[in-house]
Specification:
- By secondary structure, the protein is mainly alpha-helical.
- The protein has one domain.
- The chain has helices at 3-7, 14-46, 48-84, 88-115, 117-122, 129-142, 146-161, 166-189, 194-218, 235-268, 271-307, 311-337, 340-347, 351-365, 368-383, 388-408, 417-452.
- α8 (166-189) packs antiparallel against α9 (194-218), α10 packs antiparallel against α11 and α13 (340-347) packs across α14 (351-365).
- The radius of gyration is 21 Å and the shape is globular.
């Protein structure tokens, strides 16, 4: 199979082509999860206070994804559809516009992290002043590489939209290895503690971006024979990308902000509760990182077939992706419910917290299958250029999550901290089921409309 045929997702065997595109992205996310776990492993050796601080700061890095998506999602949709319809020049102008958006928002968010870091950390209301100070230092350092992270995300999205997910994987793999190697050196050997973990993250992100930019300009399998990374954008393309990606970015922003609200509720029960949540969420990332990676491939795959007007392949892709993610979600649910306790103990070896993690992980296990099916339906919608349905569903469910969490954890009901976990899991189940059913109804209506033509 030559290069052109490999990267053409609008022809050939669906499951083989989809997995060919998805596996490197999943591997990249697995590496991301691995270096997050490595970071958590070393910081956990400093203590639960340091782990709580990096967990709080990490939520702002997660919040940055909402703005990052404005460039990368627009690139995924626009470039994949342009490649599917054979419009290479349109794919280039879409890339220029997406990169412009990424740089602008990357610089703005990094500046906010530095200037308003005290207010950002103050949102969590930590009772321990030293925990807040650790989090503020972490934010200020990681902000140094934030614009480069935004650019990396968009360049990776363009590569994937063109049918090549291998180059971003190589760059992300090198970045992950750099991070894992630097963590123990900077945290313990040089005695930098939490600041060392932040420097390791910033350096690794810079390395990955520089490599990806070099590949994009001179790599053997780059999306375009020639392209200027720094180029004036076409403003109509910028407007189109913002229009398509704004619902996704807004939904991501709201989701992360509301997660921060529930984390604030967890912090009410002490820094230990925040640390427990940090470790548990990283174990649960087996679902949302891999599901998100598979979804990224799905956007590109569906986008190319949408551009080529191959509706049957879109329908078949949705069915096959559903089958794959259903099995994966069931596997992760088992891992959380059964051996999850032992995984938790690797990263935070405090006996009391290990025992408390059992209930937390079993509650989260309930929502893993719905979350995986949501990854399929939401990203199929996005590949078709329909970003509003999932944004509406996620917004509704996430807004309801916060009062549900506060209600279930209130003293009157007697659930306490577990009430927070039940509220999170229940809202995820509703969101996944609603998204999947909506897509099925939408696809049936679209098929009926095509038959009438």
């Amino acid at each position: 199979m030559d290069k052109a045929d490999r990267n053409d997702m609008a022809s050939g065997p669906i499951i083989r082509k989809l997995m060919y595109l998805a596996v490197p992205i999943i591997a990249s996310q697995a590496l991301l999860m691995l270096y997050n776990l490595a970071d958590m492993f070393w910081v956990g050796r400093l203590g639960s206070d340091e782990l709580a601080a990096t967990g709080a700061a990490g939520l702002y890095m997660w919040l940055s994804v909402a703005f990052m998506l404005l460039g990368s999602t627009g690139a995924s949709i626009g470039v994949s559809q342009a490649f599917g319809s054979g419009e290479k020049e349109k794919a280039k102008t879409c890339t220029h516009a997406a990169l412009f958006i990424s740089v602008a928002f990357g610089v703005a968010f990094a500046s906010a992290m530095v200037v308003f870091r005290q207010q950002m950390v103050g949102f969590f209301g930590f009772r321990e002043a030293h925990v807040a100070r650790f989090a503020e230092d972490y934010l200020a350092i990681v902000a140094l590489s934030m614009p480069l992270t935004f650019v990396s995300s968009t360049l990776g999205a363009v590569y994937t939209a063109a049918g090549n997910s291998r180059a971003p994987f190589i760059c992300n793999a090198v970045g992950a290895v750099v991070n894992m190697a630097l963590d123990p050196i900077l945290i313990f050997t040089l005695g930098l503690g939490v600041e060392g973990a932040a420097y390791a993250t910033a350096i690794s992100q810079a390395v990955a971006c520089v490599m990806l930019a070099a590949f994009f300009k001179a790599g053997g399998s780059r999306p375009f024979a020639a392209i200027r990374i720094v180029a004036a954008p076409k403003w109509d393309e910028v407007a189109w990308i913002i229009k398509k990606s704004l619902p996704v970015g807004a939904e991501s922003f709201l989701f992360t902000f509301l997660v921060m609200a529930t984390s604030r509720r967890e912090a009410f029960f002490g820094a230990d509760a925040m640390a427990l949540s940090r470790v548990g969420s990283q174990i649960e990332s087996l679902t949302w990182l891999v599901g998100g990676a598979f979804g990224t491939a799905l956007i590109a795959f569906v986008g190319q077939n949408f551009g080529a007007k191959k509706w049957d392949r879109v329908d078949s892709t949705f069915k096959m992706a559903s089958f794959v993610m259903l099995g994966y979600g069931a596997l992760v649910a088992f891992v959380l419910a059964v051996p999850g306790k032992f995984l938790f103990g690797l990263f935070l070896p405090e006996p009391d917290l290990i025992e408390r993690s059992v209930l937390y992980l079993r509650i989260l296990a309930v929502c893993q299958v719905p979350m995986c099916l949501e990854a399929v339906s939401s990203n199929t919608f996005r590949g078709l250029g329909k970003t509003l349905p999932q944004a509406f569903i996620n917004t509704a469910c996430n807004v309801l999550r916060v009062p549900l969490v506060y209600l279930l954890s209130a003293e009157a009901l007697g659930m306490g901290l577990p009430g927070v976990w039940v509220g999170i899991s229940a809202s995820s189940c509703v969101k996944g089921a609603w998204s999947y059913i909506w897509y099925l109804a939408s696809a049936r209506k679209a098929r009926a409309a095509r038959l009438l033509l």
